[in-house]
Amino acid sequence: MNLHHLRLFRAVALDGTLTGAARRLNLSQSALSTQLRQLEASLGHDLFERRGRGLILTEAGRIALDHAEAIFRTADDLTAILRETGRSRHALRVGALATLSRNFQMLFLRPLIGRPDVEVVLRSGTQAELLRNLEGLSLDVVLTNLAPARDAASPWLIHRLAEQPVSLIGRPDLVGKGRSLAQLLRSEPLVLPVPETALRADFDTMAARMGIVPLISAEADDMAMLRLLAREGAGIAVIPPIVVRDELDAGSLVEAARLAGISETFYAVTQHRRFPNPLLADVLSLCDNR
Questions:
Q1: Inter-residue contact 93 to 138 (CB < 8 Å)
Q2: Cβ contacts of residue 272 below 8 Å, gap of 6+?
Q3: Both ends of the chain: CA-CA distance in Å?
Q4: Are 130 and 142 in contact (CB under 8 A)?
Q5: What is the pLDDT of residues 157-204, one digit of tens each?
Q6: Is 248 helix (H, G, I), strand (E, B) or coil?
Q7: What gap in Å lies between CA 86 and CA 125, rounded to an integer?
Q8: For the chain, where are the E strands, in sequence order?
Q9: Is-contact 287 161, C-beta < 8 A?
Q10: What's the rounded Cα separation, in Å, for the pair 266 and 251?
């Protein structure tokens, strides 16, 4: 078995026909078929079965394709890393959950911002999209507040970056002065994360324990939207202070009460790589030392 055979096998697997794959590879169909048989002989299993005019992967073929893809991703990664050697600028490709606090993202990236030798490439998306891109090596790290599930087969390395407190935060005219947490929860409209979030589940548990049914004026799954709703006076928001740090510093929002026992945890998700991005090690070590 060699990489050439694997490349031919992958081309046939993706096309589904010998004819189409041979045309793209600029090979004769007979030559391609011969080399596929050599690969099957070396592995000791049939990789395809015929279905009409097409070829369908066998179980062994699906396993072989998964491994072939991993091999070529590693090879591409090696090429990209080695081509960067000696260049003056290096890129760190960061994926961030679309609903994640922008302030937290900037806190993570701050050690790299402005460095003349660094280019930061930032992409946002859903957790599933970002993890697919991380596995496909188009991202170096994913920032999230949702720790992905891990088992023996998962490739993820989960770095716990920070645990931020959560507070009731609103405009000074809504918060007033001297009112307790219970008084605020009973009398003021609230801006809350959506019920599907861990933060909302923790808040609902706390409210139930206090015997309070809150008046909900708005719900959002995006920290940026919670921030805007609080700024516009839609209600008092349940939100980590880091999300509205600029507004707190300016006095346009105030922290009315800290929610004891409730916090928001932020993670960086990476995976085992033969050639990890050295910038990633730098920024993670800085987070560890904060």
A1: yes
A2: 155, 157
A3: 49
A4: yes
A5: 899 988 889 999 999 999 888 888 999 999 999 999 999 888 899 999
A6: helix
A7: 32
A8: 48-51, 54-57, 90-97, 118-125, 141-144, 156-170, 190-193, 216-220, 236-239, 254-271
A9: yes
A10: 26
